[in-house]
Amino acid sequence: MNIVAVRCLMETVTPQLGVEYAENMGISTMTKTDLGAATALGGLTLGTTNLDLTAAYASIANGGTYIRPRFYTKILDHNGKVLIDNQPETRQVLKDSTAFLLTDAMTDVMKGNRKFMRPGVSPISATGTAAALNNMTTAGKSGTTTNNVDVWFEGFTPYYTAGIWGGCDSNQKLKDGSVNNGGTSFHKAIWRKIMNRIHEGLSDPGFVIPDSIETAQICRKSGKRAVSGVCDHDPRGNAVYTEYFAKGTAPTEVCDKHVAVTVCAESGMRPTPFCPEKTTRICMVLPSGEDGTTDDSYFAIPGECPIHTDASTIIVPPNESNGGESPGYEIPLGPGYQPSRETSSEYGPGIQ
């Protein structure tokens, strides 16, 4: 993900615009030396404060509206007269659609067991799973510096935004008592315990979806529109999910990673002209020239059936005339027998 963030800043957003966004969202420590790739990963020359960073995340939680932090609302005299009314300073820094899409992405960060892989692969937790609240929708983002010298977690709910930093003045590597002494979880546990206490007795309304958002059924393997009857029959489970988009930006292309392939019912491989029974299975189209093995490789379009390769005999399959039982004999084939190929080796994007 670091590579994606850096390329996005350097090739699409530009460092100048990125710094401008950060300043608009209340980051007060930006300098000219921050006009570089490191800024995409939070590598600021002067760093930032927990207050600034938490206020920036709060602008996402507030639908793109930045509210300048304040430590009091008003000051009264002994008669109750208002001496100072500290009204909040606000400004719109993001479109509400952008704020919601960021919120939705950070909500996924909190979920556990997000794997979509073949059976036998261990569950995969996200970076924010350890901070997830008991009964409240939560969005958040974790962060670490090199060698776990600093650890951060910024998160929010429909009610509150909170940020936590862990580190030492001496910039030493943190240890949390875990097996690998990674020092990367204790701050999430603190954040979760504090926020669970704050949210006691509150209902969970979820995050409000603005009118500027639309949804589409997407294939999680291609990122394109799902093909009904194909993408939802991936061997690993249903690969279709509902994704959010700013109106007018949903993809129009359909999935080109899943294909319905005719295979031999016995071997599971592409049928030869001699395979007596065929069925359909969903396979993955691998990128041309792909090296190595990925999870998709286990579900690639198979080779040709190695069982039914000889035209000398064909086993008669069960049929209604004999009660569904195989007759137990073979049909001898003459030397001039030419089996029909029909569609035995064809495959297409969907089940017809």
TrEMBL record:
It is found in: Membrane. One of its GO terms (biological process) is regulation of cell shape. Its EC number is 2.4.99.28. GO terms for cellular component: membrane; outer membrane-bounded periplasmic space. Its main location: membrane. InterPro entries: Beta-lactam/transpept-like (IPR012338), Glycosyltr_51/Transpeptidase (IPR050396), PCN-bd_Tpept (IPR001460). It comes from the Bacteria. Residues 317-352 are annotated as: Disordered. It catalyses: [GlcNAc-(1->4)-Mur2Ac(oyl-L-Ala-gamma-D-Glu-L-Lys-D-Ala-D-Ala)](n)-di-trans,octa-cis-undecaprenyl diphosphate + beta-D-GlcNAc-(1->4)-Mur2Ac(oyl-L-Ala-gamma-D-Glu-L-Lys-D-Ala-D-Ala)-di-trans,octa-cis-undecaprenyl diphosphate = [GlcNAc-(1->4)-Mur2Ac(oyl-L-Ala-gamma-D-Glu-L-Lys-D-Ala-D-Ala)](n+1)-di-trans,octa-cis-undecaprenyl diphosphate + di-trans,octa-cis-undecaprenyl diphosphate + H(+). It is an enzyme of class 2 (transferase). Keywords: Cell membrane, Cell shape, Cell wall biogenesis/degradation, Glycosyltransferase, Membrane, Peptidoglycan synthesis, Transferase, Transmembrane, Transmembrane helix. GO terms for molecular function: penicillin binding; peptidoglycan glycosyltransferase activity. Residues 35-195 form the Penicillin-binding protein transpeptidase domain. This is peptidoglycan glycosyltransferase. It comes from [Clostridium] asparagiforme DSM 15981.
